Amino acid sequence: MKRWRNLLLLFASVLLLSFLVAGCGGGKQETGNQQSSEKIVAKFSHVTAPGTPKGLAAQKFADLVKERTKGRMEIQVFPSSQLYGDKDEFEALQANNVQFIAPSAGKLISFDPRFQIGDMPFLFKDNQGASRFWDSEEGKKLLQSLEKQGMLGLTAWPNGMRQFMNSKKELKTPADFQGLKFRIPAGGVLVDIFQALGAGTSNIPFSEVYTAMQQKVVDGTIATFDNIENEKYAEVLNYLTVANVNNLSYIVVVNKQFWDGLPADLRQTVEQCLKEATDYERQEADKLDQESLAKLKQKIKVYELTPQERQAFVQAMQPVWAKYEPIIGKELFEAAKKVNQ
C-alpha cells in the first residue's frame, strides 16, 4: 500500500513539474526586439510598368530583402495596377491587404495638404533638387505626418520632371493652352496650373490614361519622359513641350501596424535594403529620363522652351504660388527653395 502511495506521489510531482515548465514557456510572447523563425510575406502594389524607375526600384527592394534576410522575409511586387489602382490602393494599405505602395506625392494631399509641394510649378530644378528636399529635415517631417493615418512615409523616389504633351499643336506660350483639356493624376495644384493657362482638366486613373487619350476624352497630359515612353503615349499624342514644370516624386508608404510588428533586427535590414533601392532608383531615373527623351525625339515633335518662353510660364503661375504658399507653409517652401538654388 505504501509503495502505491509513493508511486502516486511521484507521478503527481512529475505532472506538476511539467505544467510549471509549460506555463513558463507559453507565457513568452514575440516582440519587436526578438527574432521570429516564421517567414514574413509582404505585398508591394504600384501602378506603373515594371521597366519604369519605380518598377525597377520596387523589384530591386524585393530582391535585396530576400537576399539579405536569407528568406526570413519576402516582398511580392505587383506592378501595373495588377492588385489595386490609384483610387483603392490607400484603402487596401490601411486594411493591411497590401503592406507597401508608392503613390505620387500629389496623391497624399487628402491626408496632408502640404504634400502639394511636390506639384508646385517651377519650384524644383531637377530630380536631384527633389531628392535633397525629401531627404531634408523638413521633408522627413512631412513624410512622418502620415503616421496618424496608420501609415508611414519611408522615403521618396523622384521619377523625373513633368512635361506637357498633347495631340493638337505645339505649346510654346501660355495662350496656346486655351480650350485644351488635360489628364491630371490628382487635384489641387495641378488643377490650378492648367486653369491659370486657360485649360481644363480631368482626373483619370493612371491605368486608363492611354485609352482616354486614344478616345479623345482628353487632349493631353502632364508626365515625365520615362512614363510617356513606357506607357506608349507617343502612339496617341503628337506634341511634347519640354518645360520642366514640376517634379514627379513617388513616396514609399508602408502600413504602420505591419512595420511596427517586424522584429527589430529584420526591420533594420529592410531599412538598409530600402536605402540601397532608393539610391538605385534615383540613378536609374536620371538615366532612363534621358534615354526616353532621345527615343521620343525619333517619334514625335519635341519642342524645348527657351529661357524667355519658360519665364512667361513662370509668370503665369504666380497666382498658383500665392494660393498655395499659406496652405503648404513658408517653412516647407523655404526648405525646398534652399536646396534648389
TrEMBL record:
Keywords: Signal, Transport. Pfam families: DctP. It comes from the Bacteria. GO terms for biological process: transmembrane transport. Residues 1-22 form the signal peptide. One of its GO terms (cellular component) is outer membrane-bounded periplasmic space. Belongs to the bacterial solute-binding protein 7 family. This is DctP family TRAP transporter solute-binding subunit. It comes from Desulfofundulus thermobenzoicus. The lineage of its organism: Bacteria, Bacillati, Bacillota, Clostridia, Eubacteriales.
